[in-house]
Design goal:
alpha+beta, Beta-Lactamase, eight-stranded antiparallel β-sheet, 18 helices, 18 strands, about 30% strand, transcription regulation, HTH_bacterioopsin
Length: about 525
């Protein structure tokens, strides 16, 4: 090898036609990791192996095949650019380290693919969210999600599951896409009590669960990983459908790439899970609101209810008057008390888990009323998220009776089983009844009859004088002067009239809300 090649900035090997190494420069030694004296050694023993072995293939024919290629060499953990050229003395092999360039190209390509995938995901999710707004049933919601995700080019298939009636087991509700053998393996794993799928963990935790790559994730059942490998499925994401404290179901999404779900995709799918969970609840509530008939379920409740435990501690009778949501996992419960003082109620509440705060509202000789701030998973939140509305709720010395209202096509058995299992409640009766519908005219007539003439006059005058605007167009004194009454008298009539207005609007929903 002449000095020009020996000191060249690229690696050079001089090789005879039969593949024997005749010479090598220092750059080539460094590039291929050659140690010791390699002169006279076969090229196959000196040059590391790649998956394709393109270099050795160039020496297999009757004559040398001149070629250039770039291949990855696992032993070196680098990419090499190799050129084979015939010379007067045999063959020259030129070697360059192209690892940095290849990594840069891969990074750029990865970003390009990720950008394209993100754009597709956002488009698909936007379409799903638009359709979910108008969905009227669980089946429609499941089919919308599966169809939209399973029929895209970036995912192999998607399926939606929900808890089986009467147990904690998941069952496949809908699926779409090229499911292959993987979805069958998932279904079998759901029936196997010795394994836990991604989707089951998502339902248990209420959080996204991912496996990338699928076959190497120890938390994925072996049967699912094996089936996924055979189908070319390498990534999976389980998205819980969550609303409040309740998980309605789960979406399983399977893709061919080993990094199909980025952090940005996680955020997008969390939004999908929240909106889908809300859509399930909204569909149930819509059905209840528009239904001409309802199903009433009656439950006997024990210590699974916070209010029941409080009644036991007081050995008194409690009645839930109304409930107002307070954040994601808390409620303001307004409870009337009979047979205990407010001091006794305050003392008992401090020892009951789930009651964060208590405020006395009114006290009488026989009891009074209190506001409880209750936090955590309770029958009230469960019944609401499952599509029910509590019609009546009374508690006496540790036991209670709750009457729940559902739309006639509601999943009565599912709700009865879920509530009974999780909150120590016994389903004791079901009754179908017609619900009277009040028209707007009837509502106004009833309200007109409830208000006294002075209350109507005070409300109308204050309303037209912009007393209720912000900022006010008239002060209380100005309105009172127009009516030739005192300010205190005006406020008395306004409060009484406003109370009747609120009673007419809130009485049904508040008193039939839900209970702990």
């Amino acid at each position: 090898m002449d000095d020009r090649l020996r000191h060249a900035p690229v690696g050079v090997l001089a090789v005879s036609a039969d593949g024997t190494v005749n010479d090598i420069n220092e750059v080539a030694r460094s590039r291929i990791g050659a140690a010791g004296d390699v002169v006279g050694a076969p090229l196959a023993e000196v040059f590391p192996r790649s998956v394709e072995d393109s270099l050795l293939l160039a020496f297999e024919g009757c004559s040398i095949t001149e070629t250039s290629f770039e291949e990855y060499y696992p032993e070196l953990e680098r990419w090499l650019g190799v050129s084979v050229a015939s010379t007067d003395d045999g063959v020259a092999i030129y070697v360059e380290d192209v690892t940095e360039r290849r990594r840069h190209e891969q990074s750029v390509e990865k970003l390009r693919i990720e950008h394209k995938r993100t754009a597709v995901i956002e488009t698909v999710l936007s379409e799903i969210l638009t359709e979910l707004v108008g969905a009227t049933s669980r089946a429609e919601i499941a089919e919308t999600i599966c169809r939209s995700l399973g029929e895209t080019d970036i995912y192999e298939f998607a399926w939606v599951g929900e808890r089986e009636i009467g147990s904690d087991s998941l069952v496949l509700h809908a699926a779409a896409g090229d499911t292959g053998e993987t979805v069958a393996a998932v279904r079998d794993a759901l029936d196997d009590e010795t394994t836990t799928t991604l989707e089951e963990r998502a339902v248990e935790t209420g959080r996204l669960q991912a496996a990338q790559p699928l076959v190497d994730d120890s938390q994925v059942p072996d049967s699912v990983g094996t089936a996924g490998f055979a189908d070319g499925v390498q990534s999976a994401l389980a998205v819980p459908l969550v609303y409040g404290s309740n998980v309605h179901g789960v979406v399983g999404i399977y893709a061919s790439g080993t990094e199909a779900f980025s952090d940005r995709a996680y955020t997008s799918f969390e939004t999908l899970g929240d909106v889908a969970g809300f859509a399930v609840t909204a569909a149930r509530n819509r059905n209840l609101l528009l239904s001409d008939s309802v199903a009433e379920l009656t439950f006997e409740v024990g210590d699974g209810s916070v209010v029941s435990r409080l009644s036991k501690a007081l050995d008194s009778t409690l009645r839930l008057e109304g409930v107002v949501p307070h954040g994601d996992d808390a409620l303001l419960c307004f409870v009337s008390v009979e047979g205990s003082t407010m001091q006794a109620v305050e003392g008992a509440a401090t020892d009951i888990t789930g009651i964060d705060d208590l405020r006395a509202i009114r006290e009488s000789e026989s009891g009074g009323s209190v506001e409880l701030t209750v936090r955590g998973s309770t029958p009230l939140l469960a019944i609401s998220s499952l599509g029910g509305t509590v019609r009546r709720a009374n508690f006496d010395s540790g036991t209670g009776r709750i009457v729940v209202e559902l739309p006639p096509d509601g999943d009565v058995r599912r709700i009865a089983d879920a509530v009974s299992r999780d909150y120590n409640m016994e389903f004791v009766a079901k009754e179908e009844r017609e619900r009277s519908v009040t028209t707007a005219r009837e509502f106004r007539d009833a309200l007109h009859d409830a208000l006294t003439e002075r209350q109507r006059t005070a409300l109308q005058t204050a309303y037209f004088a912009d007393y209720f605007e912000s900022p006010r167009g008239s002060t209380a004194e100005e309105v009172a002067a127009s009516l030739d009454i005192t300010g205190s008298t005006l406020l008395y009539h306004l409060r009484a009239g406003q109370r009747k207005l609120l009673d007419a609007y809130l009485n049904e929903s508040s008193r039939s809300s839900e209970t702990r």
